[in-house]
Amino acid sequence: MFKKILKSYDYSIITVYLLLCFFGLVMIYSASMVMAVQYYGYSPDFFYQKQKINLALAFVCFLFFAVFPYKAFKNKKFLIIITVLAILGLLAVGLFGHVTNNAQSWIQIGTRNIQPSEFAKLSVIIYLSAVYSKKQTYINQLDKGVLPPLMFLIFICFLIAIEPDNGTAMIVFLVGMMIIICSGMNFKTILKLVLLGILLSAILAPFVLIKGDEIFTENRLGRITGFLDPFGTEQKEGFQLVNSYLAIGSGGLKGLGLGQSVQKLGYLPEAHTDFIMAVIAEELGLFGVAFVLSALSYIVLRGFYLSTRSRDPFGSMLAIGISGLIGIQSFINLGGISGLIPITGVPLPFISYGGSSILVLSIAMGILTNVTMFVRYEERFKGEKAAPIPRERKLKAASTDK
User: Which of 363, 225, 343, 359 is CA-nearest to residue 277?
Assistant: First the structure.
């Protein structure tokens, strides 16, 4: 039994996850060493050492959730606990959180900063997957099957958005909608949801116009201005994006060499967090970028593929939600540093510096690994035919019956 379980793990996903984490650790050291000395007065390896501790804890969590049966998360008591904790964590940010980069998103516990919105991502995925897997018999009843969990999703997104952390709120909403659309409802129900969304948008439009000054703050408008005209606002709103362009453009095919980035020398803010891919492009060129994109794409596509082979709706939706989380967050980060979308301050999965981010992503990868293990185990061993009974035993059984 134990050997069969070990053979059923998808070691390709585990390998890619580990490669991304270790690659990210190296790039965090390269991207942060100058900033650590010049801006904070720390040793060059300060952020590197902190991320090593973060990764050690993250790996322990990954291993635990990789062997812990994911079906236990469907328990009603567990769902109540994670939803209550997610809401309390987000409410605590408004009361006790401290502001960093114009967002009150962190709570300090001892010497560590915790970001509850990161943990809310995983809570939403587990909750929606569990609830909609239980509603399969009436999944197309809008009032009973669809709307109650959707209200929870909207409430969580609202709590994150008012921090304000619009990037994370967008990720949570898109991942939640992906799970809802893939929950098994028919096209007619999906169309009703779309029309309901349009109606709600029309109702909220006057409120947005009245409260426009409070919603569209100078900082938020600055991000849009920097996105639309980065070179026209090079010394203000477009400063980050212009220097990101310079980093990406100067890397070329092979890059300037590991540790040789010029833009990280004070020109590119948040080089070890949100803009770490720009440093990768500058130092390792197209080859470094291709490695990260290929690895992230493999995890996402492999997760989606295995979700289609799961016989359990809960496991299938978990795989879709986790894969979607990694894919959507990667797109929003890379879209921001390349000028495809406004900058949102979202970290690049597995690569950027951050304790809460790598911890949540590692737990999510552990759950995804466990789901894929069950899928492969059922395919390989549940379908085995019983071994044929030897002829001698058949004759003995027949004589006994007589």
Answer: 343
